[in-house]
Structure formats: C-alpha cells, structure tokens
Design goal:
The structure holds three protein chains of three kinds. By secondary structure, chain A is of the alpha+beta class. Chain A has two domains: 220 residues, Rossmann fold (3-Layer(aba) Sandwich), CATH 3.40.50.300; 121 residues, RNA polymerase II/Efflux pump adaptor protein, barrel-sandwich hybrid domain (OB fold (Dihydrolipoamide Acetyltransferase, E2P)), CATH 2.40.50.100. Chain A has a six-stranded mixed beta sheet with strand order 7-8-9-3-10-11, sandwiched between helices. In chain A, strands 2-1-4-5-6 form a five-stranded antiparallel beta sheet, with helices on one face. A five-stranded antiparallel beta sheet of chain A has the order 14-13-12-15-21. In chain A, a hairpin with a 2-residue loop joins strand 13 and strand 14. Chain A is globular and about 70 Å long. Chain B starts with a helix and ends with a strand. Chain B has ten helices and twelve strands. Chain B folds into two domains: 126 residues, Periplasmic binding protein-like II (D-Maltodextrin-Binding Protein, domain 2); 107 residues, Periplasmic binding protein-like II (D-Maltodextrin-Binding Protein, domain 2), CATH 3.40.190.10. Chain C is mostly helical. Chain C has one domain: MetI-like (MetI-like fold, Orthogonal Bundle), CATH 1.10.3720.10. The relative contact order of chain C is 0.16. The chains are: A alpha+beta, B alpha/beta, C mainly alpha. Chains B and C meet through helix 3, helix 4, strand 7 and helix 8 of B and helix 3 and helix 9 of C.
Chain lengths: 361, 241, 230
C-alpha cells in the first residue's frame, strides 16, 4: 500500500496531491503534458524533495517533512522506468540488468534474473550495447533492470511515449505480464487514455498539479463531466465483460456484462476469460424506437440519466443500460428528439474495442 | 617580427641591447644623457646570448653592450658589429655571497668551501655552459683549484637574479655573483672577493652594430666615456679606470 | 647524426621521468578539482577557479619564484617538508616534477572538467533509483564516462611537462643528472654560439616523444569511446 501526500512549488506549477495506491495493482496517473505527473513520480522516488510531504510504503515511512525524515533515493527500493530508458551506454545489456542487484534487500521477495530474462524475452540481447538496441528493446531492458532490484513499487513514466505504435503493441503484453508474473505494485504515468484503459486498474486524473478525480478506470471513464480531462475524442465507456462463447461461423465473441451481451468480431478467447472493452461515445447512436432490421448487432435498451449540455455542437448523453453507456450525438438531434433525463431510448453500439484481454484475478 | 619594433623607434632614438648586469648604471646614465642631447636612448636588457642571437636575426639594435667575449667575437666575425667604443676599461669582479644571517669566516675561501660541502648544500652559480657569470665563476674556481671538489655541488642558474634569489632565501648556502650585483642588497653579504687574477678579465664591450644612426650612437658613446658616467659605474660596484 | 651522447640520453630519460611523475601528481588532484568546479557551486567559487587557472596565465618564471619561496627549505611548506620528512625539493628531480605539475595542472583540470560536464545527469539519477550510493555512481558510471577526458588531460599534462622550462629552471636550476631536462638542455645549447646542431638533435627527440604520446592518446581515446558502442 502506497500512501502519498505532497505539496511543492515549482517555477511554473504548484503540486498539491494526496492519494493511495493499492498493492499489486496498476494505478495510472493520467493527465496532459505539463500537469505535473512526472514531478510527482520524481518526488515519490526521492530524486526531488518536496516542500512538504508524507510518503509511506507498506507501513514504512520514507518521507515525512514534519519530522525531518527523508530516505535517499538509493535506499527507497523503488524501481523507476524512465521515458528515455537511461540505459548505461558503456555496459552491455546483461551488465545493465545486473546493475542494481547487489543492493538488493534480502527481506523482500527475490525476483530471479532468469525469470526476468524469459518474461521480457531478452535472451538474444544480453551481449549487446544499448546503442545497438531499438527503442522497444531498450525499454524492455529498462524494465528488467528495475525489476531486478526487487522493488516494492515500480514507477513508470510514459515508458511507451517514445516508441512507435507497432512496437507499443508488442510491449503491452510484457507490461501486462508484469502483474501476473511478479505481483508488483505499479504507478503508471501516461497522457494516452488508450494506454490507461489497456493497462490500469485504477486511475488518477491529474491536472494543474492537482488530483481532479480518482477511481476505477471504468467509473472514471463513464463520467461525462471529466471528458475535458480524459480527452473528448476517445471519450466513452469502459466495460468489463466475461467471454461466454464464440461463434465459429461468424467469428463473433459473446461478451456478457451487466447490460446484456456484446457481440464482437474478435479472436477466439476461452470461455470465462475476463476482458475490458472500450466503447467510444462517438460510436454510439440513439433511437427512440426499436430500429427495424439494420446492420448493428449490439442494441441495448436504457434510460437517459445525464445530459451534458454546453454550447458545443455535440452532446454527450449517459444512458443506464444496466451500467452507464455514453453516446454522443449532435445538439440538433437531441433537440429534435426532445431527449431529456428519464427518456427511454435504444442505444446502438457500432464498434467495440477489446483493450485488455486479460484482467488479472 | 622586428618590423613592428622598427616602426616604434623614432627617428632620433637608439636601441641598446645590454647585459642584465648593466641595467642599473645604464639607466641612470641614459637619464642624464637624454637631458643633454636630442637623441633618446632605449634599452633591451637580457642575457648576452639571447641578445646576440636577436642581432644575428636582424634585430634593430644600435649598440651591443656585454661582457660575453664569445658572443662579441662571434658578432665581430659575422661582421655585424664594429670595434668597441668605450675607451676606458669597464670591468667587474666576482664576489662570493651568502645569506646575511649565515656565519662564515670571512675571506678564508678554503674554509668556506669546505663548510659548503660538508653541510650538504649547493653553491649557486651561473650556468657555466652559457651564462657569462657562470663561465667566469668556473674559471675562478678552476684557477683556485676548487672546481673538482665543487663540480657536482653547484646549482647552475640562468642569471644573476636567480642566484640572488637562492641566496636571499638561504636556499643555497653560498653563491657567486658579480660585485655589482651585490650593490644595495641587504639580504645578502659578501664573504669573499675573488682576486682579479683568478679569472679572465670581466670586461664589458660596447660595440656598435652596422646600422644607421652613427651620429646618435657616437653621442652616447661619448656619454659613456664621460667622467659622470664613470662615477656612476663606480658607485654601482663596477671597476673603471 | 641522430646519435646521442650520454648527457643527452640522460636528459631524455630525465624528461620522461619528470613528466610521468608530474602527471602522477596532477591526475588525482586534477580529478578532484575538476569535479568540484563542474558540480559544486559555493561561496568563493570564482576565486578557486582563478587560482586553479593561474599557472596558465602567469609567466612560468614567476611561478618558479613562487615555488622557491613556498617550497624552499626556509619556506612555510618547505620548512615542514625538510624538518619533518627530510624532503628537499629544490635541486632535485622531484622538484622539477612539482614545477611541471603546477604548470600543467590547469590543463588537466580543464580537460577533465569538460567531460564531467558532458555526463548526462539523468544517468546518475537512474543509478540512484537502482540503489547505487554516490561512491558507486562515481566509479561505475561517472569514471568510465569521463575516461576519454582523463586520457586527454593526461596527454596534455604530459606534453606540457615535457616542454616545461621557466618554472623548472628558476625553482630547481639546471643540475646535470638531476634536473637537466630536455628543454633546459636545449636552452643551454642555443645559448652557445655554434650549439644549434646539438639543440636541433634534442629538439628532434622531443618532437618524437611528443608525437608518440599524441598518437597513443588518440588510440586510447578512440578505444575508450568505442566502449560505448558495439
């Protein structure tokens, strides 16, 4: 359990934030560039000392400005994966990996080097120097290097930001795998909502150095009022569902959730698997009547519970179909259809993205 | 390189290259010379060897004033200078000096040298391979049959100023300088005067170079030979007849 | 033509010995001074910086006289050296090495300081998060990264020491077998009419030694840099 409470004045930003992160969970710090996320990580790691702060990890106090307690970064046992990997250029991959191992505190569960090399698929890279690695390979080594210090907590500062989309897709499984293989608490900083939806269990919305909201990813994403922070383009509902079947002929997965069943084109997954889906508001339309034969597979009945009315040409509407679902329509349509809170509607979901194939136990 | 120097010397100025040991008396002489004559005198004081080489390379000096016989002869041979213009013999003597607080039996040279050797210290001298002071010092020590004993106990230095520096700090227990160098120096004292016969006469030659300004050079030579100038030399510890 | 007599061989050996020892003095002290100047800021920083660079701008003879005053047996430090340790620096090759060390010190400091300043501090931050103490960071990260700068500093220092004249001759004089380094010997030859040929022989050897030092330093520096690639 990580408890953080820090206040600090930078030249262009004031940080004032309190939060807790659960053990063995991935907690995301999400916000725009410049919102202070990296500074918060720097203060948790001890690289920066805040004006005021209190930080406790698993009942050990590592920072308490009131009582003059400040554990130096090298003694905090907090792993840090930087955006620019920061591998040591004069050491090969194996030496980089082993760098922090001698300082390991034997009271913590040991992470074995063979397991790390296997999990991150580093076997063929061990003799190379960092200058001969691709961006993705560098980050995998950086992750391995941090893991091998058997950290209590892993901080990740936009580790995929400087990696191209294709490689990013390759690395996601590795980061997801960290949870399962090593049972480790992760604080993950990102300005990409996709990454957060894909990886995180809980998220904190950070803006202007302050916490705007905190909660499960599904809950935060279903809050229309937070869309200015989470980003309008990708705004939508995040829904956890369970695989209940696969139609071989049409290659359709059945995903069961509180609002019904989603039929999604997807790869075959085993029954019982828990997945996370992302339904973008712009992919959801509304109808007052049950539409006659049409091409949309996923239609759900529900009641409007919130309408975001400001003066933009588009309106975000939250519908309760058992769980909240967000739809985005034009203000004109909203007026024409005379939609109000309480109106019963049919929601048509045109596209469903399966983000996370494997939500941990 | 000397192009720039030439431009700085005005029409009625003469440039004299002189040995460092002559700097004090020559500056005084130049002062009263300049009052009486239109021609003005400028000096460059350095080691005789350096100055001679500069003249060889075309330095715009009008007079070379040094006690280094080797270099004067060399310049004469190369036809870069004429015969000396100072009529009276200007010469110097060697003095053995020590730090003012050291106790020595004055004038007992053998005793002094034995003390130097037994104390494990060194004798500060000019470098006998090329410094005139050193060459004369070596001659004197050879003639007094002390060179063999002292050969490995000397500290060869590039000029008199360095020798004085070592003696003033009592870094070398004794040293040999020109008598004129001891003038007005309160940190050191003379413990032995080398007889003039122990070395080749330390005579200074003022030789004019083969350059123009013969009138001005002649004027200065006359000044050098005047009684006033002779007195100034005497005051500074030089010998002049 | 290029064969040497004993005195000249002695001068060459002495020069190399003095220069190597001079580097031995300047390397650790230069490393410390470079680190302080590159990383620390404090009251009196400008003064410290000025003192370190003083030998670069002062006439060597002035430095020589200063050493004589300070380290001569009656000087404040020389006194202690003589009475407590029975060390006399004047008239000895060790003194010549010190004169060279002082004159070449600023060169060593500058070369190393530049490469310390080019270390990416973020690497040191990363090392800290991996549990490294400041000492470990120094020898496992900083030192390897500044190694090319150290090589460069050593070369410059060595070359400067080989050519050191003014401070040496003023501080330790020109004693055959003890302090008659190459520059002093060359000077003696030049000061004698007809000594040019001898001077030229020694000059040639000086150049050869300096070239060897230069070439090996280039080789070592590029090898050290290659360590960061491949």
């Amino acid at each position: 359990m990580l408890k953080v409470s820090i206040k600090h004045e930078f030249a262009s930003l004031s940080i004032d934030i309190q939060f807790e992160a659960e053990q063995n969970c991935i907690t995301a710090l999400f916000g725009k560039s410049g919102s202070g996320k990296t500074s918060i990580l720097n203060m948790i790691s001890g690289l920066v000392k805040p004006d005021y702060g209190y930080i406790e990890i698993n009942n050990t106090i590592i920072l308490d400005t009131n009582n003059n307690i400040f554990t130096s970064p090298q003694k905090r046992n907090i792993g840090y994966i930087f955006q620019d990997s920061r591998l040591f250029p004069h050491l090969n991959v194996l030496s980089n990996l082993k760098y922090g191992m001698s300082a390991v505190n034997l009271n913590h569960p040991i992470i074995q080097i063979d397991k790390v090399i296997n999990t991150l698929e580093l076997e063929n890279l061990l003799n190379r120097k960092p200058s001969n690695l691709s961006g993705g390979e560098k980050q995998r080594v950086a992750i391995g290097r941090a893991l091998l210090t058997c950290p209590r907590i892993l901080l990740m500062d936009e580790p995929l930001a400087s990696i191209d989309a294709q490689m990013r897709a390759e690395i996601f499984p590795f980061i997801e795998g960290l949870q399962n293989e090593f049972k480790i608490t992760i604080l993950y900083v990102s300005h990409s909502i996709e990454e957060v939806i894909r990886l995180a269990d809980k998220m904190l919305l950070i803006s202007g150095g302050q916490k705007q909201a905190e909660g499960r990813v599904e809950d935060i994403m279903s809050r229309i009022d937070l869309y200015p922070f989470t980003g309008r383009f990708d705004a939508g509902s995040v829904i956890s569902a369970t695989v209940t079947g696969f139609d071989e002929h049409f290659e359709l997965l059945s995903l069961s959730f509180e609002g019904g069943v989603l039929l999604v084109n997807g790869p075959k997954l085993d029954d019982g698997r828990k997945v996370r889906t992302h339904i973008r508001a712009r992919d959801v339309s509304l109808s007052l009547n049950m539409p006659p034969k049409n091409s949309i597979l996923n239609i759900f009945k529900g009641k409007i519970i919130e309408i975001n009315s400001n003066s933009t040409p588009q309106v975000d509407i939250k519908i309760d179909i058992g769980i909240p679902l967000i739809a985005r329509i034009t203000r004109k349509s909203c007026d024409d259809m005379n939609l109000k809170i309480g109106t019963r509607v049919f929601t048509m979901v045109k596209a469903v993205a399966i983000n996370r194939r494997n939500i941990g136990a | 390189m000397f192009y720039f120097v030439t431009n700085k010397i005005k029409a009625n100025e003469i440039l004299i290259f002189a040995a460092s040991s002559l700097s004090l008396p020559l500056k005084e002489i130049a002062q009263f010379h300049d009052k009486s004559f239109e021609s003005k005198v400028r000096f460059s004081f350095a080691s005789s060897s350096t100055l001679a080489r500069q003249i060889v390379r075309g330095a715009p000096a009008h007079l070379y004033f040094s006690a280094n016989r080797k270099w004067v002869d060399f310049l004469l041979k190369e036809n870069l200078v004429g015969q000396s213009c100072n009529k009276s013999l200007l010469s110097n003597e060697l003095a053995l000096i020590t730090w003012r607080n050291n106790i020595f039996k004055v004038n007992d040279l053998r005793e002094i040298i034995n003390k130097v050797i037994s104390s494990g210290g060194r004798l500060a001298v000019g470098d006998s391979s090329h410094v005139p002071l050193g060459i004369y010092s070596k001659q004197a020590l050879i003639n007094l049959r002390l060179w063999t004993k002292l050969k490995r106990k000397t500290a060869p230095l590039p000029n008199a100023r360095s020798v004085l520096a070592f003696i003033e700090r009592n870094e070398a227990i004794a040293g040999i300088v020109y008598k004129s160098d001891t003038h007005l120096n309160e940190k050191i004292k003379i413990i032995y005067n080398f007889p003039a016969t122990s070395h080749k006469k330390i005579t200074y030659f003022a030789v004019p170079t083969r350059s123009a300004r013969t009138k001005e050079v002649l004027e200065f030579c006359n000044t050098l030979n005047s009684i006033k100038a002779k007195n100034i030399f005497k005051q500074h510890g030089f010998l002049i007849d | 033509m290029l064969s040497l007599n004993n005195l000249e061989i002695e001068a060459i050996e002495l020069s190399i010995k003095v220069a190597l020892n001079s580097v031995l003095f300047t390397l650790p002290l230069g490393l410390i001074a470079a680190w302080i100047l590159a990383r620390k800021r404090f009251y009196g920083y400008a003064l410290f910086n000025g003192i370190v660079h003083l030998p670069l701008v002062l006439p060597p003879v002035v430095v020589g006289f200063f050493l004589l005053t300070l380290l001569g047996r009656n000087g404040p430090i020389g006194n202690i050296l003589k009475n407590v340790f029975d060390i006399t620096l004047v008239f000895s090759w060790q003194g010549a090495a010190i004169a060279s060390a002082v004159m070449s010190f600023p060169l060593m400091v500058r070369a190393i300081k530049i490469s310390i300043e080019s270390i990416d501090l973020k690497l040191e931050d990363a090392a800290r998060t991996l549990g490294a103490s400041p000492i470990k960071i120094f020898y496992s990260i900083s030192l390897p990264l500044i190694f090319p700068g150290i090589i460069s500093g050593v070369l410059l220092s060595f070359a400067r020491s080989l050519g050191e004249f003014g401070a040496t001759i003023t501080f330790v004089s020109n004693i055959p077998g003890e302090t008659n380094t190459l520059p002093l010997s060359i000077y003696s030859f030049i000061q004698t009419p007809g000594g040019e040929a001898d001077a030229l022989r020694l000059v040639t050897f000086s150049i050869i030694i300096a070239m060897i030092a230069l070439v090996s330093s280039e080789y070592l520096t590029s090898k050290a840099k290659k360590n960061f690639e491949g």
